[in-house]
Amino acid sequence: MSFNIGLSGLYAANKQLDVTGNNIANVNTTGFKSSRAEFADVYAGANRLGVGKNQIGNGVRLAAVSQQFSQGDINNTGNVLDMGIQGQGFFVLSDNGSRVYTRAGAFQTNKDNFVVTSDGLRLQGYAADSSGKIQKGVLSDLKIDTSALAPKSTTLIDQGINLNSSADSIPLMVDDGNNSTPPVLVPNKVFDPSDETTYTKSFPTKVYDSQGNEHTMEQFYRKTGTNEWTMYTLVDGRNPFDPSSEVPLTGTISFNSDGSVSSMSADNTGHPAGASFSVTNNVFTMTGWVPAAKDASGNWAANGAEGNAAGMRLSMNSTTSYNTETARMSQSQDGYATGILSSLSIDSTGVMFASFSNQQSRAIGQVAIASFANEQGLQQVGGTRWTETFSSGIPGIDAPKTGTLGSVESNSLEASNVNLTQELVELIKAQSNYQANAKTISTESTIMQTIIQMT
């Protein structure tokens, strides 16, 4: 019997050495989780109807090799597709349709621009639509779309302007100076964009047509009287509706005594069919813009693109007239030219943002992570990966930082959680245990020899 007990001890010590050696071997394995050998005593012929007072144990057995899912250090790598999970969860991978899970986030792109592991398993997540909205619900293979970002024609310009209430007036009509009764009024300084004495201030704004061509819309503001201003609008120095003309679109703005807008109006006469210039709720709308460019002869003509079919809106809701410098305090417009992918970033919620050469950015997908009710029940399949089992329960998959799920750290990898010092101590302990159990067998052998010699 003592031989069996000693043998069971040798077996247990050998398994402890195996587990410790495996931990030490994987001390530098990304995302590796250390294991611990757990043992239980063995009693043969246990009396179910009572307690045996004189029972002697029958040795030891390996009860379990439990994985330790404590957090590993997150180390910076500088590679945007390197991802570590800070907290609970696993990356979800597709292995030819079957799912496996990992904490090792060293990813790259394959020839089809899918995000994959070094051996080709595809990272799973949520796709984004053309506007950058994440489509939650269905997992899919994450892909880095490297195609050009299509241009967008300008639909809205929003700006905050203050028009100096104390600026000198440039009346549209003045007395002819002949002291007539009643006075005879004549035009005063007809607007000329090249003559700064015919307007008070101008503000240029970049706008874009349907092909992504950049144009300059310039607005010229002229104070024509007390609390009265006239606005002239040109695109590339031409009439927006007729590139052959330099006649601007004209609008007027009246202010209250407190500097707020009283009313706005737009001159909608003399425009080509289908074109209009109007104002509603302090928003000017220019419909029928004809984007233009100079031809080979130097003449202005339509460039083949179009403006937004619904028109280009100019919001003047933030316009004021206070006794301070005429200036534009804020400006934004929603059009842009064609963009080429220039960089990629991933935030802590796993959202992948693509930045383009036209200063635009949008989400192109989101990494999903999974959690399990019993992580100890996961089955290791090699490659620092696990599969679900009946014991682990089904995975709960969602976006990072949802509920108890951890966050994603881009440009970083999670190191092994092996404590090398502790493992070396365990190695010494396992060696001592092995030697002690071997001594048990040696002693039993000596006793047997003594008994044999007595016969």
From TrEMBL:
It comes from the Bacteria. Keywords: Bacterial flagellum, Cell projection, Cilium, Flagellum. The keyword Glycosyltransferase does not apply. It holds the Pfam family FlgE_D2. It is found in: Bacterial flagellum basal body. The keyword Transmembrane does not apply. One of its GO terms (biological process) is bacterial-type flagellum-dependent swarming motility. Residues 410-454 form the Flagellar basal-body/hook protein C-terminal domain. Residues 181-336 form the Flagellar hook protein FlgE D2 domain. Residues 85-143 form the Flagellar hook protein FlgE/F/G-like D1 domain. Its main location: other. Residues 4-33 form the Flagellar basal body rod protein N-terminal domain. One of its GO terms (cellular component) is bacterial-type flagellum hook. InterPro entries: Falgellar_hook_FlgE_sf, Flag_bb_rod_N, Flagellar_basal_body_rod_CS, Flagellar_FlgE/F/G, Flg_bb/hook_C_dom, FlgE/F/G-like, FlgE_D2, LlgE_F_G-like_D1. Gene3D superfamilies: Flagellar hook protein FlgE (2.60.98.20). A flexible structure which links the flagellar filament to the drive apparatus in the basal body. Belongs to the flagella basal body rod proteins family. This is Flagellar hook protein FlgE. It comes from Pseudomonas urmiensis. The gene is flgE.
